[in-house]
Amino acid sequence: MTESSLRTPAALRDSIAASVGAQIRSLRRAADLSSVELAKRAGLSNGMMSKIERGATSPSIQTLGAVAHALGVPMARLFADYGERRDCSYVKAGEGVRVVRRGARFGHEYQLLGHSLTGDLFVEPYRVVLTHEAIVYPAFQHTGVEFLFMLKGRMRYRYADRLYDVGPGDALLFDASAQHGPERLEKLPIVYLSVVVNLRT
User: Fold this and answer.
1) Is the dihedral of CA 23, 29, 33, 39 positive or negative?
2) What is the pLDDT of residues 138-162, one digit of tens each?
């Protein structure tokens, strides 16, 4: 049972009101508006606007719509800071976990840079290094979508029946169910970021 599920309805209402109020105040200041100006634009009294920003009242959907319109933002933006943020993975430079994947036997070094903890998506970000010991292997094939961003070196990368000349700053995004992988190592060492995304089963 989560902490939020133990809150009373009144506590949840107050928490939402405080979060929305703080977001409105932040957006108002970013727009260089006074609370009086925002209240006038939204058709509200100064007192009501003050209560909303302080989280002292729970405004109606119509009122929030008027405030969002006055700020020039979608109403959903007012709720942007509300909710639990539980999924965070932090890895310091050089401290990624070395893992053995299929490419390891071809001299491809994988360093896992983080992992998703919750939600419907399973995300695996890797720093991949190919040195002089590495050999080409253009026949990787797995589920999910893969994003590749080249950091150093140069290679010819195969995806299905196409070849791409990939250098620093280049990116590929593809369905990983088709065969793919480096076909020719042009300039070593090669370093790239590979992010594989799958639906969690």
Assistant:
1) positive
2) 999 999 999 999 999 999 999 999 9
Alpha-carbon distance 188 to 186, whole Å? 7
CA 177 – CA 143 distance, rounded (Å): 5
CA–CA dist 58, 47 (Å, integer) = 14
Phi-psi region of 94 (alpha: psi -120 to 50; beta: other; left: phi over 0): left
The C-alpha atoms of residue 14 and residue 105 are separated, in whole angstroms, by 56
The fraction of the chain above a pLDDT of 90, given in percent, is 52
> Where among 45, 79, 113 does a domain terminate?
79
Could you say which DSSP state residue 197 is in? E
If one counts the domains in the chain, the total is 2
Q: What's the CA gap between 157 and 180, in Å, rounded?
A: 7
* Residues making up the chain, counted from first to last: 201
pLDDT tens-digit series, residues 73-120: 888 888 766 655 556 777 888 877 777 666 667 788 888 888 765 556
Residues 102, 75 share a domain: no
